[in-house]
Amino acid sequence: MKKPIIYITRKLPESLLQSYKEYFEFHMWKEEESSVPREILLKESKMADGLLCMVSDAIDAHYLTQNSQLKIVANNAVGYDNIDLQTAKKNEITVTNTPDVLTETTADLTFALLMATSRRLIEANQVIRDNQWKNWSPYFLAGTDIYNKTIGIVGMGRIGTAVARRAKGFGMRILYHNRRKNPEIEKELQATYVDFRTLLTESDFVVSLVPLTKETKHLFNKNAFHQMKQEAIFINVSRGAVVQEDDLFEALNKGVIRAAGLDVFETEPITADHPYVSLDNVICLPHIGSASEETRTKMIQLCLDNIYQYFYGDGPITPVF
Q: Which segments constitute the D-isomer specific 2-hydroxyacid dehydrogenase NAD-binding domain (predicted)?
C-alpha cells in the first residue's frame, strides 16, 4: 500500500512525526510562526490525502472544492469555524478537532486574563518598566476584587465548566447561559442558569466561551455592553467574531464598562495600531489560550492519531462528523 501523503500547514517538531513516518509521507510548511501562503497551500494540497491544519487556516468552500481528493482534515483546535463543514460533507471529507486535551490549559489562561485585567497587572508592570513608580498612595493602580463577585459564563461547555470550577475556588457566585441547562454543573458548583440579559445585568465579570456560529456572531454588541454594569469586566477567550469590535471599543473608551481582557480578535493577527491597543483598560493577548508546551504537544499528537486511526484503525478518535 502506498503511504498516504499528509500536508501540514506549520512546521512541527520532527520528533512528533517520527513514529508516524512508517505509515505516512509528510509534506510540511517550512515556518512555525507564519501561515502557509494560500497559493502554496492550494498547490501542496492537490497531492495530499490528508491535511493537518491550524485554526487560522481558511479551509473554505473554494479550497475543499479544489481538493476534493482529501480524505481527512485534522484541525489543531477545538473550534472549527475555519472549515466549511457543508462542503466537506458534500465531498465526503472527514473533519476532526482536538477537544478535551486543551480544556484545563485554556481555563487557566481565561482565569489568568480575568485576574490580570481586574488587578491591572500589565499596567502595573509597565509603570516600573517606564520608571514611573514615584511613590505609594492608597488608590495607586487600584483594581477590583475577584473574591465574592459574580461571574457570568456564556458557553458552559468543557472550558466554561473548568473556568466555573476555578471561580468556585474564589468564592464567586456563578451564573451561566448556554443552549441548554446543565443540572450536573448546577449541583456540583451551585451555578445558576439565567437568560442572556440577566447574565449581562448581574455579572461583575462576563466571560465569553461560546463557539462561533451564525447565532453567536456579534452576540456581544452595543446593546449587550450597555446592559452590563458600568464596573463590569468583559473577557473573551472564544472567537473574536462573537464581538462587534467597534461597539466594544466605544464601550471601553466611554466608560460604559470597566475593562476587557481579550485573547481573540475578529481578524488575526492584530498589530500595535489596533484601536484596542490604545486603551489602558484592555489587555490583548495573541490567541494563546491553549499555549502551554504540554497541551500544544497533546493537540498535535491527537491530530496525528486521528489521521492514523482514519487510515489504519477503526476511524478517527474525535471526529466532528
A: 111-289
Q: Where are the beta strands (DSSP E) in 166-267?
A: 173-177, 192-193, 205-208, 233-236, 259-262
pLDDT (0 to 100) of residue 201: 98
Query: How is domain 103-284 classified at the CATH fold level?
Result: Rossmann fold (3.40.50)
Residue type at 302? L
Q: 177, 239, 258, 296: which is the annotated catalytic residue?
A: 239
Asked if 31 is an active-site residue, the reply is no
pTM of the full structure = 0.94
Between CA 163 and CA 166 the distance in angstroms is 5
Active site residue 268: yes
Mean pLDDT of all residues in 155-168: 97
Note the pLDDT tens digit of each residue in 19-55: 999 999 999 999 988 889 999 999 999 999 999 999 9
CA angle in degrees (0–180, nearest 5) for 260-214-67? 110
Superfamily, domain 5-101+293-312: NAD(P)-binding Rossmann-like Domain (3.40.50.720)
- Fold: same for 5-101+293-312 and 103-284: yes
**Residue 181 · residue 193 · CB < 8 Å:** yes
Contact 23, 312 (CB under 8 A): yes
Specify whether 239 is catalytic. Answer: yes
Domain coordinates in residue numbering, the chain: 5-101+293-312, 103-284
Q: Quick one: CA dihedral 82, 29, 297, 106, positive or negative?
A: negative
Beta-carbon count within 10 A of 69 CB:
12
